[in-house]
Amino acid sequence: MRKLFALIAVFGMLTIGASKLMAQEEEAAAPAEQTEQTEQLTASMEEEDIESTSLHAAIKQKFIEGGAGFMAAVVLCLIFGLAIAIERVIYLNLSDTNTKKFIAGFEDALNNSGLEAAKEYCRNTRGPIASIFYQGLERYDQGMDMVEKSVVSYGSVQMGLMEKGLTWIGLFIALAPMLGFMGTVIGMIGAFDNIQAAGDMSPALVAGGIKVALITTVGGLIVAMILQIFYNYCTAKIEGIVNNMEDASVSMLDILIKYEQKNK
Predict the structure, then answer these.
(1) pTM for the structure as a whole
(2) Residue 109 pLDDT exceeds 60
(3) Which of 4, 65, 175, 238 shows the smallest number of beta carbons within 10 Å?
């Protein structure tokens, strides 16, 4: 019996010792793995920093090579054009409302609470459609012909407000490539001047001048393409809102005619 207890005690000590040894090995291996992961993460971050720095340096170098004057003008076209385009995008998205929901609410307010409630509903709703409805209700007492003329006239006003600023975006779309082409022409003139001054048709002189000249053209074309995307988006958005305005105006006239017949 004593021998059995002794064997059990020895077996337990061996098990405890083995578990401690394995734990120590795992603890020793864990810092090594963490160190390796940290080194890999640091290396990847350094590579990303180098790539971003190299990209920034490359853009800066091309900007300088293209000529600070013309490249700055192209960049200004991009900045001003984007500023106007972003403002238009925000304005048009705020102007776009759920037309069906608005018309249903307008009809309920008019039939249940009268003209003043319908006016208040229009005042509390944003967008050109609500403004057109409000202008039509303001002239309801002058007859349906006057309401229709008011809706058509104020619809033109709202369309002009939505198209505000698009001409400037179009100007920058046309101006940026022109500035790039002008920089190209001036760069070519400079290249031929260098050839004339050197008295030799050196490929290095020609290649350097042409390279500098074409950088401005590429910059202008890139700016024009970016602004063209925003311009087309704005025009498509305006067309959609105008179609909704026209449909809503017809629905408004129908609702007012029914309301007039009901209250006769």
Answers:
(1) 0.69
(2) yes
(3) 4
